[in-house]
Amino acid sequence: MHNTHDGSVDEVQGRLVAELRPFYDEAFSVTEAYRETLPDLQNGENTSPQVAIQHVGIHNFRLPMQIETRDGEPVQLHCSVTGTVSLDAHKKGINMSRIIRTFYEYEARALHPDTLRDAVQRYLDRLDSSSARLAIAFDYPMKQQSLRSGLEGYQYYPVVLETMITPDGLRHFMHLDFIYSSACPCSYELSVHANLYKGVAAVPHSQRSVARVSIEFKDFIWIEELVEHCRAALKTETQVMVKREDEQAFAELNAANLKFVEDAVRLLHVELDANPQILDFRVFASHEESLHSHDAISVIVKGVPGGFDAFIPPFSIPSAGPRR
Questions:
Q1: Does a structural domain hold residue 39?
Q2: 30-44: pLDDT as tens digits
Q3: CA geometry: angle 56, 320, 259, nearest 5 deg
């Protein structure tokens, strides 16, 4: 705005602002002609540093979706969505609402890698980017039977389904947190030694532990299948429904499957490596020590060139997806 004979720029702007009405017109209707007058800063010239951005978009956008279980039953999930695209150096920004609007076009479809592929491709085209990523996080319910009493309860598994499209092609990932008990082999032997040589009671320490399993898969893999791989490898999944006989069984199960954190990742490596549908994987195991005031951790990867690596950010579990 230029100076006028009525005063300085600041004076004119101040007068115009003072004349604005604090009023909301509920009857106002947006026409196409009015829409054309609206400023569009995001599609303007980039006046900030000319640097490309690998990922920009939305995070923790919430909506309900359905997923089909391996048994063919639909399950309603509360999902958290992360959608991002790459941004060229000369572009100012993206219209982030297009990611949300695009995803709502697919809300009626079952949550499946094909749905993620179509949604990613759609907003990739709309935003004119070279790369895009979509991640859907939710808790997946599965019935778990108790060890001996025959009771059943729901175990909830934190899962992230992730799809990525780059100039190199389409890739699908799944991330799963599997919670299990880890009884320390060293503590077990020392406890037995105290029983036998000193005649005193001693209890080996064990702790709730988590294995974050990340896989890249070829065509399709059921969430149930990945859970079963974890159960087969680690044996000592935490329990939902427990009576006295189940608690005793769990103590026996832990004694039969003692494991250090190093054992946990190696056992999972063998199990996952045997599935030809799993192209790549990373396992991050954390044993929340009851003996120590720190955790014991271990990371193992399949070792695919350009795939998952074993990087551990300080004070956090590795983020979803491979690092590039």
A1: no
A2: 999 998 888 877 666
A3: 165
